[in-house]
């Protein structure tokens, strides 16, 4: 008796769809791919209940005739490639001929389409991959595909989905990425019958400005490099506008939104010591590479690529980013990312004007919270490169990272303060609430996580159109609150660089990081001394709250050996 048998087409499709169609956002992605491949310059996306109920994508592209429509939802049917040679220079988003078949097998699908040569369109109704109805319908040229009750026949898969608002957020994130790549395509998205995104055709800069939280005008700098095998354009954030999350990192290769660790590494290297390892830059980079030098056929989701020569790409990205930082004088000496002239200047100004409760200012709370029992250091301390402090110790010498050390000191003081006083009494009330501008996806995260911010001491008034800051913990008096709220929401949405279990700990780490001396700050002898004394008083003086070392010891014995004294 044979044990092996061929699987029937239905189950093959269901399995195949598992690789690609994990959640509603991937349906949106595949349908947008098809609309763009069909040359549409208008795409309308309608979502109901975060895509659980309906995902509909309508385009004004080329459309399909009746015969093609009947083939389109079958497995391995495509108009985009013919043979394996074509795989070497794929210019379209799709090429596998699997998406519609995969989606159709796990949903109730309707395909409406009309080419410009036809007088009327056709409507197909397909349930679990089986054609149920096929009739004529009046419509404009283009295609509308509607996907209802995704995973209704694969309950196990459905159980892996998150809440409708989380699924909606993933859908929006995908639409945003496509909108960045195709600025001349008008894109409109509605959720539960309400338009939540309406992006007219625009210039690249206008489109990106509409979609990014980091402002292009003063927080980012342009990137441009042209080399024989690659052209790179886009924007990167100035080091002082980095984040604790990686939400605003976009890489496109030939307008395909992809993930690529080689490119990420090169970007990171180009920033080098301009950024502490705990902060991430924002960037949107568009790479144009000859089609035959990119393999797009390495991942079922088509969101990864490999290059014929990784070195060329890595070097080009590195040069593009580092040239842009240099050209804009964002060299080491110029980085004062503590002293940023923030886009929320307006908010800050208002805070300063309204701040009456100076008693609860950070410095004051800190001063009260800790006894000053430091043992003074007698040796001179030298600050080098406005970053490190060097001094003698009885056994040798130490080098201290001024930012890491100060962060550790503030962190421990704040934790003690937090435990010893009732923070509810240290809340700054605003006489006039201040609007906080959040994009759609952060707004959804806020709706799901309002409790967390409330628990931290923020009061936010939420209505359909806006979010108003009413009061906040006084520890934030000197900080950029909007920035914190962005960071916090981005972290909560799963893009966090480090994992903090405790929300209060995360808040305190943020305050410590933003309040501490930075690389580039000149310290007086007295400040250097105080810093080292206070570091000695901390419980975990060896590392900063992110785990980086604060101090490196050099033993005199090692020097003696090096100088051949022993
Ligand atoms: P692929 O995109 O990899 O070819 P799909 O399953 O996504 O595979 O689509 C199958 C075929 O259906 C496409 O090759 C295309 O010819 C046709 N098609 C799908 N969506 C559209 C659309 N929105 N407009 C025009 N043709 C479409
Ligand atoms: Mg496709």
Give a summary of the structure in a few sentences.
The protein is of the alpha+beta class.
Alpha-beta content class: alpha+beta
Bound molecules: adenosine-5'-diphosphate, magnesium ion
Query: What integer value in Å does the Rg equal?
Result: 28 Å
Biggest beta sheet summary: 8 strands, mixed
Give the CA-CA distance, first to last residue: 81 Å
How would you describe what is shown here?
This protein is an alpha+beta fold. The protein has helices at 9-20, 24-37, 66-72, 99-105, 155-158, 164-181, 204-211, 216-219, 261-271, 310-327, 345-354, 362-369, 402-420, 440-456, 481-495, 503-515, 525-537, 556-562; strands at residues 42-48, 54-59, 108-114, 121-127, 130-137, 142-148, 186-191, 194-199, 220-226, 231-237, 249-253, 256-258, 283-288, 294-295, 306-307, 381-384, 388-393, 396-401, 427-435, 459-462, 467-473, 551-555. An eight-stranded mixed sheet has the order 5-4-3-6-2-1-7-8, covered by helices on one side. A hairpin with a 2-residue loop joins strand 11 and strand 12 (256-258). Helix 6 (164-181) runs antiparallel to helix 7, helix 9 packs parallel to helix 10 (310-327) and helix 13 crosses helix 16 (503-515). The longest helix has 19 residues, at 402-420. The termini are far apart. Residues 332-361 and 365-375 have low confidence and may be disordered.
Protein traits:
566 residues, alpha+beta, eight-stranded mixed β-sheet, five-stranded mixed β-sheet, elongated, binds adenosine-5'-diphosphate, binds magnesium ion
């Amino acid at each position: 008796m044979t044990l092996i048998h061929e699987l029937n087409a239905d189950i093959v499709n269901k399995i195949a769809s598992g690789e690609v169609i994990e959640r509603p956002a991937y349906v949106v992605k595949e349908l947008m791919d098809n609309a763009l491949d069909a040359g549409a310059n208008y795409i309308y996306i309608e979502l109901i209940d975060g895509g659980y109920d309906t995902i509909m994508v309508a385009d004004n592209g080329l459309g399909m005739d009746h015969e093609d429509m009947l083939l389109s939802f079958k497995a391995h049917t495509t108009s985009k490639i013919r043979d394996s040679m074509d795989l070497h220079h794929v210019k379209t988003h799709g090429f596998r001929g699997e998406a519609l078949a995969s989606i159709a097998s796990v949903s109730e699908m309707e395909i409406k389409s009309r080419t410009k040569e036809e007088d009327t369109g056709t409507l197909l109704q397909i349930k679990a991959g089986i054609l149920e109805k096929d009739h004529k319908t009046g419509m404009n040229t283009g295609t509308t595909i509607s996907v209802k009750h995704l995973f209704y026949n694969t309950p196990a898969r459905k159980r892996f989905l998150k809440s409708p608002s989380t699924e909606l957020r993933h859908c929006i994130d995908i639409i945003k990425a496509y909108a960045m790549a195709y600025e001349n395509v008008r894109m409109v998205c509605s959720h539960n019958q309400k338009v939540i995104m309406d992006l007219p055709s625009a210039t690249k800069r206008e489109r990106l400005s509409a979609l990014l939280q980091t402002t292009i005008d003063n927080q980012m700098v342009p990137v441009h490099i042209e080399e024989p095998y690659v052209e790179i354009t886009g924007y990167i954030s100035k080091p002082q506008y980095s984040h604790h999350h990686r939400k605003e990192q976009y890489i496109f290769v030939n307008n395909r939104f992809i993930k690529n660790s080689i490119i990420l590494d090169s970007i990171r290297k180009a920033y080098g010591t301009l950024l502490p390892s705990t902060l991430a830059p924002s960037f949107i980079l568009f790479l144009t590479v000859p089609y035959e030098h990119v393999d797009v056929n390495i991942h079922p989701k088509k969101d990864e690529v490999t290059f014929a020569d990784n070195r060329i790409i890595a070097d080009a990205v590195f040069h593009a980013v580092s040239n842009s930082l240099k050209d804009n004088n964002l060299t080491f000496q110029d980085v004062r990312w503590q002293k940023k002239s923030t886009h929320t200047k307006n908010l800050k100004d208002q805070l300063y004007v309204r701040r009456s409760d100076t008693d609860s200012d950070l410095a004051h709370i800190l001063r009260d919270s800790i006894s000053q029992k430091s043992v003074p250091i007698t040796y001179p301390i030298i600050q080098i490169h406005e970053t490190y402090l060097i001094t003698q110790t009885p056994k040798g010498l130490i080098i201290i990272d001024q930012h890491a050390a100060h962060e550790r000191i503030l962190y421990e003081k704040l934790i003690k303060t937090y435990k010893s006083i009732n923070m509810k009494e240290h809340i700054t009330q605003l006489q006039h609430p201040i609007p906080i501008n959040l994009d759609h996806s952060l707004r959804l995260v806020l709706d799901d996580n309002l409790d967390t911010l409330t628990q931290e001491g923020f009061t936010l008034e939420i209505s359909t159109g806006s979010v108003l800051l009413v009061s906040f913990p006084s520890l934030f008096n000197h900080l950029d609150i909007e920035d914190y709220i962005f960071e916090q929401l981005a972290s909560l949405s799963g893009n966090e660089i480090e994992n903090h279990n405790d929300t209060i700990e995360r808040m305190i780490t943020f305050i410590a990081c933003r309040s501490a001396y930075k690389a580039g700050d000149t310290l007086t002898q007295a400040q250097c001394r105080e810093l080292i004394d206070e570091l000695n008083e901390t419980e975990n003086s060896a590392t900063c709250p992110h785990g980086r070392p604060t101090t490196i010891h050099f033993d005199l014995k090692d020097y003696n050996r090096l100088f051949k004294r022993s």
